[in-house]
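Continued from yesterday's entry.
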Amino acid sequence: MLRVGRATAEDDEQRWHAQRVIEFLRIHPWRHTLVGKLSYGLQKRVELARALAAEPRLLLLD
């Protein structure tokens, strides 16, 4: 569902957190690139960023 209207403080906080994860993993130069166009290694970093963006208490990696 598409939400219309002003961004809430929660939206701003989520956006800020996502930006920190992107910068931490050094994928910010490719933030507007489709994942399918990225190298395998960068695709894996994007997967990790998605996992970290959810702020899990525990993250199991293989």
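--- second protein ---
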Amino acid sequence: MKTVGQRLKWLRQQKKKTQQEVAKDMHFKNANTVSRYENDERRPDPETLARFAVYYETTTDFITGITDDFKVENQGFQPDLKLFSFRLKQGLETKEISEETAAEACGVKPEYIHKLMYNPDKLPGVSTLYKLADLLDVTPDYLGGFVDDPQGRSPHTPKPKELTEFLNNENVMFHGVPLTDEDKQKIENVLIGLFWESKQMNKRKKK
């Protein structure tokens, strides 16, 4: 397989999909669009290339011929960082949100937002990913490059852990001493109080 089109066709066949199915799943106008990509009559732009990589669970390096290893490393699903940075940059520009405003909303430095937009080495932490997605009115699943639907969901997307579930289900220790059920309940009560106090303070700030 020497061309981008040949690799796209091979990946589709490996996934046992028709051109019509790919077109529907990836929200292309029709199957002819897929056919033109596979016949090298049209070259995918960077975003479409990244979308193909996500859809076929491979890398843009494989599709473009940089490597012949089509499997994603480290097992499990790996998001395409190029697609993430593209969606973040496009989303902030469309919403006319500055790097400084995004940084303030996420509790990080503007330099970090700039890095995420242009040269990320990994996805941001769960908290930042979810806050950025909220700013852009999309799901973190879409922003992270796990789905093509702006409101779609994916089981591969990192999820925040519910603190109460953590306390109830895990063998939690404090300074090496296991917490009893009574200890866990006391901690949960304190956290609930702090949580609602914080909510009230935020409401007063917005007035």
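The two ends are 62 Å apart (CA to CA). Residues 163-205 form one domain. Will compare against the first tomorrow.
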